[in-house]
Amino acid sequence: MQPAQILDNIQKHISVSQPEKELIESLLVLQRVPKKEVLLETGKVATEIHFVSEGVLRAYFTDREGDQNIVMFAMNDWWITDMYSFSTGNPAQLTIDALEDSVVYSLSKTNLEFLFLKVPAFERFFRILMQNAYVREQSRIIQNLSMPAEERYRQFLTKYPQFAERITQKQIASYLGITPEFLSSLRKKSNA
Amino acid sequence: MQPAQILDNIQKHISVSQPEKELIESLLVLQRVPKKEVLLETGKVATEIHFVSEGVLRAYFTDREGDQNIVMFAMNDWWITDMYSFSTGNPAQLTIDALEDSVVYSLSKTNLEFLFLKVPAFERFFRILMQNAYVREQSRIIQNLSMPAEERYRQFLTKYPQFAERITQKQIASYLGITPEFLSSLRKKSNA
Asked: Which end of chain A lies in a sparser environment, N or C, as judged by fewer CB atoms within 10 Å?
């Protein structure tokens, strides 16, 4: 296993020595996730966090009407889990599956806690990851409350052009909390 | 200054030595924030994070219609800032003000970074804070997408009974993203 990509990602934020790199590598588990395969299911406990090396994954929940609501996408260099379940040990609210054939490096909670003890800088890395995730979610709440759907769609395309190319309009609509029909009418309007 | 409360809060998550405690205390600045006083204004850069010792604060943004949307409340033992602005140095999207006469301990970004270097466990403390904040915001997104307003109101009362006693119905409505009139009709219904 040569998870150079994940170490590059980590080293954008912290410096790690050669022995620390080897320790980190030794705790990561490579997993191939074919398209449509489920990595975490609602109701199970999330015991791992996944670094996406290839492909695209999504996290969603199914509401009472049976509709899927996408909470996040993840592609190269993103980390994904149900953080509520991972933190608390309670059952996951989200299901995570692959939208394309994907490759992830998985780190168990036990090994993550072990890394925090053995590589103190890893705590800094994770603090930065969590801080960025908090900012992202809070920005999303502010946008949902303040921006019309059309503008949120445009912002999504600007902020995540790499997702827009690889996921369906239906999936984008689900993420934005609007119907696919409404998104389609927005797109027609902006092309007119 | 005797910020025992803040050290108790920190020591729920990490252990700190006596010299570390003294260092932390020396970097905190006590601020009295009278009711309605603004601690951070939209458009300014958030250079401090505030630990609420007494009182209640809120963070809100004003949308294009001029309506105030409350993004968070904070009372004893909560930390509050505009994390987007604090992290990036960009202008704040939020305004933070006091809903009651309040007392906060403020920590500047420079001093926080200094603490991360001098007290490595403080990085852990902050990682946990940010992880909890991320989980809270994500849960809110899931609830907004999946629960009717009535249920979100009930959940809010259950989860934050201490806020419900000290803030107005109008403020709760703003946090839930509904009109005060609609909240009033929900309350009448549930009392009926």
From this structure: C
A71-113 residue pLDDT tens: 999 998 999 999 999 999 999 999 999 999 999 999 999 999 9
Cβ-nearest to B146 among A69, A140, A144:
A69
- Identify from B115, B135, B136, B179 which residue to disrupt to test chain A contact, counting A C-beta atoms within 10 A and taking the largest count: B135
**CB half-sphere exposure, A184, CA atoms < 13 A:** 5
Q: Class of the A4-120 domain?
A: mainly beta
Q: Which tens digits make up the pLDDT trace of B133-150?
A: 999 999 988 888 888 889
Task: Quote the pTM value.
Answer: 0.92
d(CA B140, CA B146): 10
In angstroms, the CA A162 to CA B189 distance is: 47
Min Cα separation A79/chain B (Å): 13
Domain B4-119 fold:
Jelly Rolls (2.60.120)
